[in-house]
Amino acid sequence: xxxxxxxxxxxxxxxxxxxxxxxxxxxxxxxxxxxxxxxxxxxxxxxxxxxxxxxxxxxxxxxxxxxxxxxxxxxxxxxxxxxxxxxxxxxxxxxxxxxxxxxxxxxxxxxxxxxxxxxxxxxxxxxxxxxxxxxxxxxxxxxxxxxxxxxxxxxxxxxxxxxxxxxxxxxxxxxxxxxxxxxxxxxxxxxxxxxxxxxxxxxxxxxxxxxxxxxxxxxxxxxxxxxxxxxxxxxxxxxxxxxxxxxxxxxxxxxxxxxxxxxxxxxxxxxxxxxxxxxxxxxxxxxxxxxxxxxxxxxxxxx
Length: 303
Description:
This is Putative cation efflux protein. By secondary structure, the protein is mostly helical.
């Protein structure tokens, strides 16, 4: 990652952390004041997000630093581990909220102050929507997984608040009318629907991060490299080759071994470097996150 991109990423994360913490504190306060389980859930969701964003900020500093004698390939492996932890906690939080909501519905629901609830939902909606579009703009060039997950969190927050606005508005209209008996069920019903829907968003992030942790080859890149090497082998008369691809966080690790037939014409080391350059250009733009190794041998036992 370029230093300037790292600075932009950390600045965006710091702003996101500050706004998220503010909403977490205000959300828990308004939730208790209004008696809304859905708002308390939103506040707790934001509090967890704040803690994980602080951890993400620490990891981004590691990613822009050089490796050490112990971590000679850098700290790319830390990123998917944090993403799994973040997503897993959000999944547990959604599951807990869903169970509580079902329990509240079965016990007859509860009354709440719709004025306080509506005011909070309106505040969160505007802040969440603003942060969502701001982070999309910041991440357009950086392409940070942390910012992408943060963008998803703000989208989730905006969806929660917009749903709360609609539900609390409808509940306020029903309150005191012929359908007033239904208002105690509004809050737990909203919470049940939101938690059941939102649980799938962190699941996607956890799935992708687990692929990185287990070093599963990205199929698109693997097929691209193999197709090119098949053609290059036919053109240049190579005997055989092997290729290995892994993606860990933002880093790509590509290892290629080419078996040359005996007597293959090599006038100088420049001949091999020319082949390396051809392969590197075919793979795509060279970035600090890409580790490319291309080795040549005449003995198939080395591959």
